[in-house]
Structure formats: C-alpha cells, structure tokens
Amino acid sequence: MEYKIPNHVAIIMDGNGRWAQKRGLKRTKGHQKGAEALKKISEYAYDKKIKVLSVFAFSTENWKRDKEEVDFLMNLFLKAFKENFEAVKKKGVKVIFSGVKDKLSEQVIDSMEKMMQETKNNTNGIFNICLNYGGQDEIINATKKISKDVKEGIIDCNDINPDLFNKYLFNDLPPIDLLIRTSGEYRISNFMLWQMAYAELYFTDTLWPDFDEKQMDKAIEAYNNRDRRFGGVKK
Ligand code: IPE
Ligand code: IPE
Ligand code: MG
C-alpha cells in the first residue's frame, strides 16, 4: 500500500506546564522548550511534504492564566517569530495567522503582519499559527460576515454551502486530515472545529516539549493505518 502523507496536519501542543513541573522548573521553562519542539517539528513536517501545518499557540481561553505566564508567552512569540523567520523564509513557506487581534499588543500584531506580508507569495507550504484563537469564535465571526453580505445582496442565502462558508473563516484552508494532541488529554479544547469535521484524531501521552521527529513519524504511521471512509462503504 502506498504511504500517505496527510495534506493538512493540526497540532494541539499541550503539556508544556506539566513538562516543567515534573522537573521542578517554572511553567515558563516548559513553554520555552515547547517553542524549540515546534521549530524542529515544523521543519520536519515540510521536509516530509506536509502542505499545511496548523498549530495551537494560544487560545482565547488562555487569557485566564496568571499575567506572568501570559506575558511570558507573548514575549516568547515575539522572540520565536524573530529568531525563526529566516528559516521559514528559506523553506518557502507561507505564514498565516488564525485568531483575533483584540488584547494582543501592537508589537505582537506588527510582528505577525510582517511575517504574513513577507511570506505571502511562498508556495512550498502553509504555516497556520492559531494565536488568540477559538473555534467557536471563528464560526461566529464567519456567520456575521456572511449575514452582512446576504443583507447587502453580495451573496444569496441559498448559495451558502460548506465551500462558501470555508471562505469566510479566518483563512480558507483545506480540511484537516490528521489532528495530533499531546499530553494525554482527550479533548479538542475549541480548536479548529469546522476544519476538523473528518480529521483522524491522534492522541499521545507525550508532553509537547518531548514531541520529536520520531513521535511525528508514529503519528503519521497511525494515520496510515486508518481506514478513511467519509461515510461511504469500503470496496
Ligand atoms: C500548552 O501547554 C501551551 C499553551 C496552552 C500555551 P500548557 O501550558 O497547557 O501545559 P499544561 O497543560 O499545563 O501541562
Ligand atoms: C489548548 O491547551 C490550547 C493550546 C495548546 C494553545 P489548554 O491546555 O489550554 O487546554 P485545556 O485547558 O486543557 O482544555
Ligand atoms: Mg494544557
């Protein structure tokens, strides 16, 4: 059987805090290690010819955390964007963001916009960073935009279908083929609800900072052993 590489892989990178706590370190140390893991895994993914990689960096719910942790994460994003940008550009990957700008600092927004602008013509892959992102938020936001366009006569109510709806989301992305969640939690936590409709789900106990190339291979291996029927019947 032919080895299948999933077109769109999405990752809920969870377990940074526990990784640090297990070692008697501050939670923030886990986030730092998590950022290093993401750098490695993203490069590996594009080498493996995965076309779209979506990662959950910060949820709309994560603002509930202590200010110290939130501030650390925001600074880490800035630092990681700066440090890894050249490598991303070299790989020819287009960087996009999903989420809302409110509550993000101007500095973070500027850095995001710079990355998007400077990589917008890249075609080797898409790196979708979900930052200040919520799945329900995304669907509601799309619904509002569609309602407005219907009201203004730009689209007809009867033309609303999954393809059109997809175009109103934060980004018009292909469906997720493989969703990975680390750290032994079996939940979706409001991540990419629309795009996940027919994704294969892969859960591992590995904490995100420990997730490496071997772990990624294991996830793709598991994906290859799945029988995707999309509601049909296997011939
Ligand atoms: C995921 O790790 C990173 C973010 C949510 C930003 P956590 O920080 O949730 O780590 P745990 O779940 O507390 O171990
Ligand atoms: C999901 O992890 C969000 C990110 C990985 C950024 P959380 O740690 O926030 O999710 P819950 O609280 O376990 O559902
Ligand atoms: Mg967590």
Q: What can you see in these coordinates?
A:
The protein has 235 residues and is of the alpha/beta class. It has one domain: Decaprenyl diphosphate synthase-like (Undecaprenyl pyrophosphate synthetase), CATH 3.40.1180. 43% of the residues lie in helices and 15% in strands. It contains 7 helices and 6 strands; from the N terminus they run βααβαβαβααββα. The longest helix is centred in the middle third of the chain and has 25 residues, at 67-91. The model has no long low-confidence stretch (mean pLDDT 97). Residues 12-14, 56-59, 61-62, 185, 187, 189 line the site of one 3-methylbut-3-enyl trihydrogen diphosphate.
Short description:
The chain is of the alpha/beta class. 43% of the residues lie in helices and 15% in strands.
H/E element string? EHHEHEHEHHEEH
Output the CATH topology.
Undecaprenyl pyrophosphate synthetase
What is the CATH C-level name?
Answer: Alpha Beta
Mean pLDDT: 97
> How many discrete domains?
1
